[in-house]
């Protein structure tokens, strides 16, 4: 009776062992498959990494500023000239130099004109009456026999004329023309530009503002870089909001420090403290007005070294006549317009549009476009041997 039970127990034990072994094998297989899947995913991620080329460091001076019109004028209402009438332009109109903007009409002057016209009319009537009386006497003179005349012909002309009255009336007419010229005063555009008319009218707001469409960069440079600037130095000017890049030149360098809000502070003593550093006004001409508007905030960069910037040809993109690259600026992809020079093997010289340490996208497997976000530290740095302040670029990015 007991033997069959022992055999049955051994059978169950063997079955449990077999099932356990199968379970262990299944777990190992699943783990292996997961590891292999993760490896494949990792490989795919590595294969989709963005490749960056970092523009090598070049000693530069940076100028922050605002795009400013070369000419701008506000036309305030002048009550002494009269009331503003006949506004011949509208907001946003483009006008040429010499075009009529508006007119002043002076009612007080018009009243003087009316009074002077009445005086002239009275004088004209008095003159006509005097001339009539004179003519009667002249006729009598010539009808009287010569021996009976009491005066000569010369005396007749001297006694019976309206010369004084004519002179007075002519003077009044001259005064009338001068008054009429002051009644309506026409205001002309002193230069070509665009009209801006305030939507709200108060005593403090101008009738209109005229702004020229030729611009310059009004900026400041700190005292540390002041002596490194020179007239006619070439500059790349980047619009902060759009990334548009234009070129320009240094036109004027102020020798007196700016005041008020334009004075900033710079850390010149490390962690132990800081000291103020004056800023000086700088003016740059711009080579084109395309892509810029009055009030745009920009940054100009001036290379102090005669060193060409070159990038891989693969990074260059075109859109019609436009040439640009994608760049990663603090984690955001932007477009930067560039100008190209000569080709150098697999690279091409960039004459303007890029600054030192720009992260230029070379290969873009993820299809990044302007506005997309990507941590540049997740990409591959093609020239990772380039150092910034003695550190490897990749280390700098990760930090």
Automatic annotation (TrEMBL):
Database matches in InterPro entries: MdtA-like_C
Region (Disordered): 256-279
Gene3D superfamilies referenced in this protein's UniProt entry, alphabetically: 2.40.30.170, 2.40.420.20
Polar residues biased stretches: 256-266
Keywords of the record: Membrane, Transmembrane, Transmembrane helix
GO CC, any one term: efflux pump complex
Limits of the Multidrug resistance protein MdtA-like C-terminal permuted SH3 domain: 309-362
Biased composition (Low complexity): 268-279
Membrane-spanning ranges: 12-33
Protein name: Efflux RND transporter periplasmic adaptor subunit
GO molecular function: efflux transmembrane transporter activity
């Amino acid at each position: 009776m007991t033997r069959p039970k022992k055999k049955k127990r051994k059978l169950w034990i063997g079955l449990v062992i077999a099932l356990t072994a199968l379970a262990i094998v299944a777990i190992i297989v699943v783990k292996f498959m997961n590891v292999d899947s993760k490896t494949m995913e990792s490989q795919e991620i590595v294969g989709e990494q963005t490749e960056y080329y970092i523009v090598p460091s070049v000693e530069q001076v940076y100028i922050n500023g605002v795009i400013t019109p070369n000419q701008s004028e506000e036309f305030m209402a002048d009550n002494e000239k009269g009331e503003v009438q006949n506004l011949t332009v509208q907001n946003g109109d483009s006008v040429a130099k010499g075009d009529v903007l508006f007119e002043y009409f002076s009612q007080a002057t018009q009243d003087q004109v009316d009074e002077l016209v009445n005086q002239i009319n009275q004088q004209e009537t008095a003159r006509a009456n005097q001339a009539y009386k004179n003519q009667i006497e002249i006729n009598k003179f010539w009808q009287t026999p010569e021996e009976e005349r009491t005066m000569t012909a010369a005396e007749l002309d001297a006694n019976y004329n309206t010369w004084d009255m004519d002179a007075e009336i002519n003077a009044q007419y001259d005064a009338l023309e001068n008054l009429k010229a002051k009644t309506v005063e026409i205001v002309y555009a002193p230069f070509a530009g665009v009209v801006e008319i305030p939507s709200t009218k108060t005593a403090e707001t101008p009738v209109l503002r005229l702004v020229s469409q030729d611009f310059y960069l009004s900026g400041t440079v700190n005292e540390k870089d002041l002596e490194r600037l020179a007239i006619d130095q070439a500059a790349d000017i980047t619009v902060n909001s759009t990334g548009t890049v234009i070129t320009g030149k240094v036109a004027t360098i102020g020798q007196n420090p700016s005041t008020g809000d334009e004075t900033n502070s710079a850390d010149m003593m490390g962690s132990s403290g800081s000291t103020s550093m004056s800023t000086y006004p700088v003016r740059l001409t711009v080579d084109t007005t395309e892509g810029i508007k009055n009030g745009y905030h920009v940054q100009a960069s001036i290379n102090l070294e005669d060193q060409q910037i070159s990038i891989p040809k693969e990074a260059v993109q075109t859109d019609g006549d436009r040439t640009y690259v994608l760049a990663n600026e603090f984690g955001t992809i932007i477009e930067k317009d560039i100008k190209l020079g000569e080709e150098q093997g697999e690279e091409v010289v960039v004459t303007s549009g890029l600054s030192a340490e720009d992260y230029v996208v070379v290969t873009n497997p993820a299809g990044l476009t302007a506005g997309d976000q990507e941590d540049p530290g997740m990409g591959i740095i093609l020239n990772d041997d380039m150092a910034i302040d003695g550190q490897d670029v990749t280390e700098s990015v990760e930090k």
